[in-house]
Amino acid sequence: MAIITRKPLTPSLRGQQFMSFKDLDKKDPEKSLLAPLNKHGGRNAYGRITVRHRGGGAKRKYRIIDFKRVYENVEGCVVAFEYDPNRNVPIALISYKNGAKGYIIKPEGLKVGDKVIAGENVDAKVGNFLPLKSIPIGFFIHNVELKPKQGGKFARSAGNSIQLVAKEGELAILKMPSGEQRTVGLNCRATIGILANADYKNITLGKAGRTRHLGIRPTVRGMAMNPIDHPHGGGEGRSKSGSHPTTPWGKSCKGARTRKRKSSAILKRRKK
Question: Distances from the Cα of 52 to the Cαs of 37, 41, 233, in angstroms?
Fold first, then answer.
């Protein structure tokens, strides 16, 4: 998917970029695979804001993605590719031989008419979903399970993939997109291939309105606040608050590690 840059006819169009959706051949989603998606504005069940800068945005419906690949050993055919407003990677509509339909996230190289299947003894080709013990070392995979039969949890966004580095006993060693190396059980399943739309990270939104369409509200600098509202606030004139950048609650936001427990599954951290 290519990036389209708008002609600078007006100030708001200067620098604006969009993804080209020429290869997405289906505009209307499958009605049987839709679910309502309610907005919460970053608030919890008590009405308190737990995630700041959320609210508004374009209305969406949720597309039910089959991360578990529930139809095992049933061959499916790729019918069409669609845009999903809830994620940055396109989705593929699969029609199975038993008459069922489902959505999967699209890997690079998958085409309309291709056959995909999930199971233990299937070929390790793009779009197939199989256990890590059946995948050759060195392959790039996505939609990787953390626990067997749980459904894919890792590498689900545009351009992402995980490399299967080695197998030791009952464990597989994975190299994550961040560079972290961790272990996962060999019975956990994954989909072969690298996810499509890798150019998504290079898009320039170009204007504040497009950020609001995504449901992201404006962010106020801590230095512009009062001392009661933020550690960086107050001071006579401009001041740097005399400390490292922190959140409103005093936690460091300059690369400090916040993971509380050490996990034996992580062999190598993403930062030395």
Answer: 19, 9, 18
Percent of residues, the chain, with pLDDT higher than 70 = 99
Residue 238 identity: R
Tokens read off for 266: 């992580």
Domains along the sequence of the chain with CATH = 3-201 (2.40.50.140)
Side-by-side strand order, sheet with 101-105: 101-105, 91-96, 76-82, 115-116
Helix, coil or strand: residue 152: strand
Token pair 């996230």 is found at 105
Q: Are 191 and 143 in contact (CB under 8 A)?
A: yes
Quick count: other Cβ atoms within 10 Å of Cβ 185?
16
The helix or strand, by DSSP H or E, that contains position 151, with its residue range, turns out to be: none
Q: What is the CA radius of gyration of the chain?
A: 22
CA nearest 180: which of 265, 254, 256, 253?
A: 265
Which residues lie closer than 8 Å to 131 by C-beta, 6 or more apart? Answer: 120, 186, 187, 188, 189
User: Which one, of 74, 95, 52, lies nearest residue 229 by Cα?
Assistant: 52
For residue range 174-212, list pLDDT tens digits in order: 999 999 999 999 999 999 999 999 999 999 999 999 999
pLDDT tens, residue by residue, 109-130: 999 999 999 999 999 999 999 9
**What is this structure's pTM?**
0.90
Q: Which carries the bigger pLDDT value, residue 43 or residue 21?
A: 43
